[in-house]
Design brief:
The protein is an alpha/beta fold. The chain folds into two domains: about 1-140, 2-Layer Sandwich (Nucleotidyltransferase, domain 5), CATH 3.30.420.10; about 210-325, Nuclear Transport Factor 2, Chain: A (Roll), CATH 3.10.450. About 25% of the residues lie in helices and about 30% in strands. The protein is built from eight helices and eleven strands. The protein has helices at about 40-50, 65-80, 95-105, 125-140, 210-225, 225-230, 230-235, 255-260; strands at about 1-10, 15-25, 25-35, 60-65, 110-115, 240-245, 250-255, 270-280, 285-290, 295-305, 315-325. The strands form two sheets. The chain has a six-stranded mixed sheet. It has a five-stranded mixed sheet with strand order 3-2-1-4-5. α1 (about 40-50) packs parallel to α3 (about 95-105). The two termini are about 30 Å apart.
Length: about 325
């Protein structure tokens, strides 16, 4: 039997996020995102471990300090699947993009899970926690993430968290075609646990009539319009001068880069609002999914109404964005 510890870390939760699994100094991996949650990190650590050990003949024992991750994988998934990835109260299951992949990765595997108390001196858990936190910190500071050697004989694909063969470019809202859907139930939203770390799968209701939602969706649609994408003047009216954007490969794009123009979108885009967080009177985060044919992206867009504390007549400006391809 091979024993591994898997752990996730999110600074501020949600915030810069890291994940890691650790067997020994020769077999470990880590990765993360500029913005995510602790629960997402916990699930991704287990998913990458399962993927990298897919050809393993020995039983695999996974140590987790997250009861949410263990219960989601071993207890709750069958009921969620029967209800089309909805909870018993009819609300959508959170983190389902990761959970559907975990469900597939568990098929036919001899895997057992064991809960260990975090920060209690358990050697493997402490090492996985250290690596996950280092990945989160690297994303926060804009430094390269140490991805590790991975499992012997397995490709170290942790850097991008994408399927083999899927290639990312650095154009706005753009990713090369992913494999077609395989008939799984419709994907729902990705959301976060409360700041106190208590697991939850409650999703906030979105007020579709909210003036803020309507305004941000309207401006997002402008960014998807090919007339806007080819016009630096139109883009300048939508982008904050201090814009920072993280694409799906972890590359950083700025206001100056995006003002150079964007390639046209050749298929009709479909925008689906997943949620909104109004952080202040003039700051809001719109969480949405973009579908372009077979391509699907999850986007978290932070909009600010004005510059330097002063509102501008042209309204909301895109200040920060993270794009994550749906695997």
């Amino acid at each position: 039997m091979i024993t591994a510890a898997a752990d996730g870390s999110a600074l501020s939760n949600p915030g810069p996020t890291g994940w890691a699994w650790y067997i020994d100094d020769d077999r470990w991996a880590a990765g993360g995102w500029p913005h995510g949650t602790n629960n997402m990190g916990e699930l991704m650590a287990v998913l990458d471990l399962l993927n990298q050990t897919a050809g393993l003949q020995e039983p695999l024992r996974v140590l987790c300090d997250s009861q949410y991750a263990i219960n989601a994988i071993t207890k709750w998934t069958p009921g969620w699947k029967r209800r089309g990835w909805r909870k018993a109260d009819g609300k959508p299951v959170l983190n389902v993009e990761l959970l559907t992949q975990l469900d597939r990765a568990m098929q036919g595997r001899d895997v057992s899970f064991e809960w260990v108390k975090g920060h209690s001196g358990h050697d493997l858990n402490e090492k996985a926690d250290e690596l996950a936190r280092a990945a989160a910190t690297a994303h926060r500071d804009g430094r390269p993430v140490p991805h590790g050697p991975g499992f012997t004989g397995a490709p170290p694909a942790a850097a991008l968290d994408v399927r083999p063969g899927q290639q990312l470019d650095d154009d706005l809202f753009s990713v090369m075609p992913a494999p077609a859907d395989e008939g799984e139930p419709p994907l729902r939203s990705v959301d976060e646990a409360p700041a106190d770390g208590v697991p939850t799968d409650e999703v906030p209701e979105v007020d579709a009539t909210s003036q803020v939602v309507v305004a941000l969706v309207e401006r997002t649609r402008e960014l998807l319009d090919n007339t806007t994408r080819s016009s630096p003047e139109r883009l300048a009216r939508l982008l904050h001068p201090d814009l920072v954007r993280h694409d799906g490969a972890g590359r950083v794009q700025t206001y100056r880069r995006l003002l150079q123009g964007l390639d046209p979108i050749e298929v009709s885009p479909h925008l689906e609002v997943l949620g909104i967080d109004e952080l202040a009177d003039d700051v809001a985060v719109l969480r949405w999914r973009l579908t372009l044919g077979h391509r699907r992206l999850l986007v978290a867009s932070t909009w600010q109404r004005g510059v330097g504390g002063q509102r501008r007549p042209d309204g909301w400006l895109l200040r920060l964005e993270q794009v994550t391809p749906v695997l």
